[in-house]
Amino acid sequence: MRSTPVKEPREARTNLLGLDREGLKGFFAEMGEKPFRASQLLKWIHQRGVTDFAQMTDLSKALRTKLEATAEVRIPEPVFDQRSADGTRKWLLRMDGSNAIETVYIPETGRGTLCVSSQVGCALECTFCSTAQQGFNRNLTSAEILGQLWFAVRELQASGLERPITNVVFMGMGEPLSNFAPVLMASRAMVDDDAYGLSKRRVTLSTSGLVPQLYRMAEISDIALAVSLHAPNDALRDELVPINRKHPIKDLLAACKHYIQDKPHRSITWEYVMLDGVNDHDEHARQLAVLLKGIPSKVNLIPFNPFPGTDYRCSSPERIRSFATILLKAGLTTTTRKTRGQDIDGACGQLVGRVEDRTRRRLRREQAAEATQ
Ligand code: SAH
User: Fold this and answer.
1) Mean per-residue pLDDT for 241-249?
2) Number of domains in the chain
3) Are 113 and 166 in contact (CB under 8 A)?
4) What is the mean pLDDT of residues 61-69?
5) Residues 211, 175: one domain?
6) Strand partners of residue 204
7) Model confidence over 207-217: pLDDT tens digits?
8) Which of 33, 72, 102, 271 is catalytic?
């Protein structure tokens, strides 16, 4: 007699949305199923956007029933959607309770970039970033990271765009290398031909510079790397990106060189936020040129995006141009990032989401502000 499998309670079910090919193979092996099921599931979920096992018609009826009992494809729930005058879109997606994260889509001619979050808030305290002010709640799961891409693809397709996303950048909320395994699992599904099939050069992890994790990443991944440098010497970087006190510039550069060492035609993108009177002098540009000498590099100057409560201001366009000219003359490929989606607070460093802060950072900040009043 065949019995219908008992349905696992929701929390016990595996969310297949978050598994890459190897993860799915492992999941099916435990069920006594063949590895090729992984390809089938990747295609159903990520290419066709199907979340209901009953519709996965090339799986046997028995397998579909088993999947319904033990697994699920659970996608994030939108809280709201904002559209910028320049075409940029931002979604606030609920992760659990009152925690929510932001995902931003930036259309450009010939490409579309999705900026995904890797954590609810951020545990680092970069002084010029508004996510840092929100405090930190938790890491996202790989399902919650891939869920952002799944969701954006469907939304954009519904607006009539056929292949809307060509690039993914881990430049939303959070420090991706603090959430190592889920981020790398998600990145593998992004480049898998049966899922999103993105080029590994078009999936970029941006880090503030966690040195041990960079070495680990070099062992298992070859996606593109961007590093938030923001200062050409330790004294200044210690102040702007406090994790530098633990992993100073020399160690960071060594880890970055190691990352691209056996990867032909690869370079590191150095992000450098332009802060008026802080890190934007000609001397800083000259120091930066010396620092990056001999490393295959692209420098991306980011005009600072203000947020409530910050004392920083963005460098003037002329200052940014002079800074760029010094780098260009030194032979460094240099671009200035166009600020997009600022009218919907969707620009770099403006993502705040809704974070149930567990670090009490916001509270401490407010108390400190009161004490100085
Ligand atoms: N934690 C990761 C990824 C998130 S930030 C990292 O540090 O790289 C993505 C980029 O936006 C980083 O280069 C970050 O330094 C930059 N950024 C943060 N706040 C900003 C702001 N207010 N204006 C402009 N860029 C900012």
Assistant:
1) 98
2) 2
3) yes
4) 96
5) yes
6) 169, 224
7) 999 999 999 99
8) 102
User: Is 1 part of a structural domain of the chain?
Assistant: no
Tell me which of 55, 72, 89 is where a domain ends. Answer: 72
Question: Which is more confidently placed, 3 or 220?
Answer: 220
pTM of the model: 0.94
Tell me, yes or no, whether 27 and 122 share the same domain: no
Domain that holds residue 321: 77-364
Measured in Å, residue 275 CA sits from the centre of ligand 1 at: 12
326 and 204 together in one domain: yes
Q: At residue 1, does pLDDT exceed 50?
A: no
Catalytic (active site) residue 356: no
Q: Is the Cβ atom of 345 under 6 angstroms away from ligand 1?
A: no
Distance 349 CA to ligand 1 centre (A): 5
Do 165 and 39 belong to one domain?
no
State residue 134's pLDDT score: 86
Q: Is residue 34 part of a domain?
A: yes
**According to the model, what pLDDT value does residue 3 have?**
46
Percent with pLDDT over 70 in the chain? 94
Q: How far is the CA of 258 from the centre of ligand 1 (A)?
A: 23
Q: Which residue has the tokens 């909320």?
A: 173
